[in-house]
Amino acid sequence: MRIPSICLCAVAILLVAAPSYCIEFRPIVVVYDGTMKGFAEGVAALLNSSMDQGEEVVVVTDPSIAASLLALPNLKCLVLTSVGSGDLTALVGPVTEYFRSGGSAIGFYGCSWQTQVGDLARSVFPAFGNATGSGTRKAGVYVNEYVRGDRLAGFGESLPDSVDLVGQFFAYATDKDKKPIDVDTATGSKTVLFREKKTGSPLVIAYEGGHGGRSATLTGLFLREQPTAESYYGKLLEQPEFHTLLSDAYHWVSEGNVRFQTYSANYQEVIGERGKAQDELVARSEEKRQSRTTNWLVLLGAFWALGMVCIAAMVRWSFFGHRPAETPNP
Amino acid sequence: MPRVDPRLATILASSVILSTLLVATIVKPKAEDALLVLGNEYPQALVKRAPAVGLDSELSFSFMATRDFERVELRFSSLYEKDLDANLSGSISLHELPNIAKVEGYVAALGGDAEVMDEDVELNGTRYRATILDFSRFLEAFNNGSTLATLPLVFAILVKGDEVRYFEGCPGFFMEAEQNLQYLTISRGDDKKEYIRSGTMLKEVPRISDAPQGGILIFETVKKDERFSVSFTIDIPDDGLRQIVTWVPERHLLELVQGYSDGKREVLLVDPMQRGVKQ
């Protein structure tokens, strides 16, 4: 009988330990575009080629699912490739909250419009866009001319000081006289890495939020999905400079994802503690229930005993103890 | 006065005692609900600026603990009806919907799961079988209340024959509560806390933004017969909530209330409201 008990113990240990083996804290990168799925897939493919930590890149086109995935602790980066701000309306609140909690994100043209996406273009992607600038047409392709702004270690350093990237328009902030201006953020640290050659408007913004999250805003990536268009996204995806820019942006923002870093370090602990607290609460509750049942059984037993004693006493008194009065002799 | 035979009296008394004891042993006392729902009131329909046009828009819930508990938890969520892919048949389950399956897959990979609930719900006189999935209970470990309140983490599917209706929503007293709640009251016994919307003149009253976020209320060390109540008035501005369209009463909202006592779900209320009224 020794072997079966050892086997039973081993099975029990395996059953207890099994859930922890099933847990996989694999980093996830979500790429969202509500209208140009092909562009999002292209960007996802580029990101995949520059990742080395087993990240899973997910392309989504439904804003609800994109918002739901923001709740995951293993979300390493959110990439919003949308050109139209209408795609982003439902995501303004969720992405702003996600960024405030220390998350990281990359946003393209659609995220830069404060008149359309409000807080998203102010507190997450601080482009404060309220005007559109036009790109330059070169060899039948619309491009924005990028010139070096400030430098930031690990983000765009290997790019030339002047580069053209496909894009028909760029979003920028203007004052009341329609002159381009740089708007500072109330909190955090904002660095303009590249500017538009003619207007000096920011084209690449690196931002570290007050709560630790990081974002990269690429205000000049206005693209179209028709292959015949002069700003077709496929042309941008073929540019090696864009690969470098995207890869640098991804690595810079995800390195600063406080939320992801925190949970990747202590996920098991958080889950374990939570499960333990919950299990203990349920166990205490169950213990109380058992105790109530036991008390009831004891009480019932006591009543039975009392009832039996009463019956026995009555039987003894009436059948054995009580003598009928003797009839006097006549 | 006639004398009663003591032996007969003994037999009768013994019968009474034995039958009482047998009844007490065989018939168990009916288990009372741990959390008793004392009140559950909600409007039939919601429109924008409902209080201004004289329509009732107050939701009110009250509960009583029927024994001592270490912890009672009330969780509110609001869901709104959305179109479902026309190709999906009535036999589909909530778990098979592509979006839900995706979220469920990632949550499962992390070792978590959704709270699954089943309930009958009546919409416009038709009774549906509702299946509800709530991921917020697992994901709240990684997100604060204000973040949770913006994320669609609660899903429901209502099925009757081939008819399928789909709902999704966020944890919280109501969608975008800071903008759409005019007034919120949370009571525990005589302790009453009131919150009002920002922009109101009353300076000394706390704002809705100060209320527990994510619609999660936790009451510790609860005594038997203690009562809790939550009520709020919805006032959606004209430019608020695109989900509310005044003249489309066919679509619905669901207000979900879950009550837990010592970690076990004891209460599930699913209150349907029309999103609009007939013109």
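qc> Chain A has one domain: 23-256.
qc> done
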